[in-house]
């Protein structure tokens, strides 16, 4: 019968890769809790409207990449392409907020985007995502950028650049948009790529981060957003930069960093690495004041970021191996019940180990013991069964001794 394969762009995670994901999640949980972030788990499926309304109809994510389906009740639902929209929907729906308070959440889990799969770009990928709601001050922007840098460093990732920019606000950005559109319109139409010819009418800021070389050339000569900030946006960004300097964050101001989602205002940032091929963005985020209101909530400001776990896994330091302490080799069928009990008692006392289920020769059992990387091989045969003893072999030293079974637990606890 034909074998069934995983869908293109969907991966199974085994062994070391799965361990890496667990270790990144553990690090995220412990580090983010120091900054008072708490975990929020939102559904994988949401109303399609949620993403259209927050991420923006004109974005690639909403326009081309969503896994959208109609359910049996004829509702349009979508597998989440990112976490921010769902977190804000949950926040608004729970009515948990009161003015003046700060709410910090992190989410970990799979996201879905119908993109062309390649190294570092999957259709099901995983994000570690943080959102801070209720704080409009620049201190908050700097804190979250600091936390992201620290997180990357703790994972052993040091070789990245932190690009930062401000996109202005709903007051000053329209003036910039107009200046940019005027500039683009006076160019010979054919000079821009097909996508940018469309973008300049629908979302001109996206022309700024087009990767096509000819578009890049024209972007260099385009008006700069920093010349259009209102005094409040100018002060806000200057303060963020001051704080990044104070906290020794290595940053680069990148005035073409616009991000691919429409909800951003003021500060945006992206951690970029050259170590993972063409998909160089390992994390990205920004401020999105106004989005909570747009989703039916109050006037609550917000900022957040997400890291792509598949991309982090390519750069992060492999977690230390955690081999079993024992491998229990059973040499005699008669000893199986006693051996089974010993193995379960050791595990219930917190000792990691393996146990030979099948009847095998001594040679084959020792090969298995070697392969398991266990520090000690425990050997139980007919003689040991008779004398209530067990042989303990130190695999590194090659030495072995026979001890009473009832002292085994304390013996191994000492060696842990
Ligand atoms: P994003 O830039 O779309 O932002 O995604 C964040 C990160 O997710 C990227 O930097 C990348 O590492 C990873 N990523 C995105 N798409 C893929 C893919 N197809 N395969 C593998 N990794 C991928 C957001 O999602 C925003 N919600 C971040 C945010 C949170 N902004 C404010 N709060």
Give structural notes:
This protein has 416 residues and is α+β, with helices and mostly antiparallel strands. 38% of the residues lie in helices and 21% in strands. The protein has an eight-stranded mixed beta sheet with strand order 1-5-6-11-10-9-7-8. Strands 13-12-14-15-16 form a five-stranded mixed beta sheet, with helices on both faces. Strand 9 (265-272) and strand 10 (281-287) form a beta hairpin. Helix 5 packs parallel to helix 9. Residues 82-84, 113, 115, 120-122, 125, 127, 129, 131, 260-261, 281-286, 304-308, 310-311 line the site of histidyl-adenosine monophosphate.
Q: Helical proportion?
A: 25-40%
Low-pLDDT parts are: none
User: Could you say which overall geometry the principal axes of the C-alpha atoms support?
Assistant: elongated
Oligomer: single chain
Bound molecules: histidyl-adenosine monophosphate
How much of the sequence lies in strands comes to 15-25%
Give the biggest beta sheet.
8 strands, mixed
Number of E-state strands? 16
What structural category characterises the helix and strand content?
alpha+beta
Strand ordering within the main sheet: 1-5-6-11-10-9-7-8
Radius of gyration: 28 Å
N-end to C-end Cα span: 48 Å
């Amino acid at each position: 019968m034909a074998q069934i394969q995983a869908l293109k762009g969907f991966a199974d995670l085994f062994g070391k890769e799965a361990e890496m994901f667990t270790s990144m999640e553990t690090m995220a949980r412990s580090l983010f809790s120091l900054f008072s972030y708490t975990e929020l788990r939102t559904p994988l499926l949401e109303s399609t409207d949620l993403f259209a309304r927050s991420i923006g109809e004109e974005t690639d994510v909403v326009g081309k990449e969503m896994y959208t389906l109609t359910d049996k009740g004829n509702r349009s639902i979508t597998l989440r392409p990112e976490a921010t929209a769902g977190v804000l929907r949950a926040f608004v729906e729970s009515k948990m907020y009161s003015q003046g308070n700060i709410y910090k959440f992190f989410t970990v889990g799979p996201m879905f985007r119908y993109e062309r799969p390649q190294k570092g770009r999957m259709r099901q990928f995983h994000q570690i995502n943080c959102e801070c709601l209720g704080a409009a001050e620049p201190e908050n922007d700097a804190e979250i950028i600091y936390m992201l840098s620290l997180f990357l460093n703790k994972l052993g990732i040091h070789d990245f650049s932190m690009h930062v920019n401000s996109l202005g606000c709903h007051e000053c950005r329209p003036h910039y948009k107009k200046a940019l559109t005027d500039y683009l319109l006076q160019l010979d139409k054919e000079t821009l790529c097909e996508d940018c010819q469309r973008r300049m009418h629908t979302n001109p800021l996206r022309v700024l981060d087009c990767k096509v070389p000819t578009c890049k050339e024209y972007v260099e000569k385009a008006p700069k957003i920093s010349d259009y900030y209102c005094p409040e946006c100018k002060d806000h960004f200057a303060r963020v930069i001051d704080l990044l300097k104070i906290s020794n964050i290595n940053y680069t101001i990148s005035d073409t960093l616009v991000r691919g989602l429409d909800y951003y205002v003021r500060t945006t940032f992206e951690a970029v690495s050259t170590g993972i091929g063409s998909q160089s963005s390992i994390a990205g985020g920004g401020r999105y004041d106004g989005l909570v209101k747009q989703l039916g909530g109050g006037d609550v400001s917000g900022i957040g970021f997400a890291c792509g776990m598949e991309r982090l896994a390519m750069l992060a330091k492999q977690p230390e191996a955690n081999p079993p302490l024992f491998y229990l080799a059973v040499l005699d069928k008669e000893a199986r019940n006693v051996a089974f009990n010993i193995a379960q008692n050791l595990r219930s006392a917190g000792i990691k180990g393996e146990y030979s289920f099948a009847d095998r020769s001594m040679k084959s059992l020792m090969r298995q013991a070697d392969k398991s990387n266990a520090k000690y091989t425990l050997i139980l045969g007919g003689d040991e069964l008779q004398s209530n003893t067990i042989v303990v072999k130190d695999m590194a030293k090659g030495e072995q001794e026979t001890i009473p079974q009832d002292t085994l637990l304390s013996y191994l606890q000492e060696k842990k």
